[in-house]
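Dear support,

We are seeing what looks like truncated structure output for some complexes. This example has two components. We would appreciate it if you could run it in full and send us the complete token output so we can diff it against ours.
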Amino acid sequence: EADIYQTPRYLVIGTGKKITLECSQTMGHDKMYWYQQDPGMELHLIHYSYGVNSTEKGDLSSESTVSRIRTEHFPLTLESARPSHTSQYLCASSFPDSQGGYTFGSGTRLTVV
Amino acid sequence: GQQLNQSPQSMFIQEGEDVSMNCTSSSIFNTWLWYKQDPGEGPVLLIALYKAGELTSNGRLTAQFGITRKDSFLNISASIPSDVGIYFCAGQLGSNYQLIWGAGTKLIIKP
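Here is the complete output from our reference environment:
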């Protein structure tokens, strides 16, 4: 049973649109992460947060932004979507010391046309 | 940045065969994790390892934390069709560090 939820699962939008990908977790995890992954490829960290009001950029440069106003919620926003943003976006969370690893959501498959 | 070398990149096997994959690094890790990702889903944790030399099983899966702390191995015995997917290793340098991910091993079972 998933304790971390991502919506929508699939999204097809036009170029230039603003979108927000939602991620919520019910485990009380302090740390949350956003990864970008092309099909069958490796995971690239684009944003992470250590807690409320904490956000950091990851290893992969991204034009998206994130916010962390509540512990359980970590949305990702693209102000102006482009075809190059087409990918799968995975949200994850963990305890502060990452014991037990990260728990992932099911992902949002984004297609920008 | 830090990198993990995961191999093989992909494997084509017959149902019933045993599978082995590994990850190596030039850095010493204090945690090794193995995940499986099914198509269209997020990765799911299979096995977590916290001590050098540790050998842990989860059903038909067995993983080991290398003695040097720079590598880890995952074995799957008697593979079945539902084992198909991508297996990722991940290592952690310390409790305050993020996970470092391997590039994945794609497991395909020949019909």
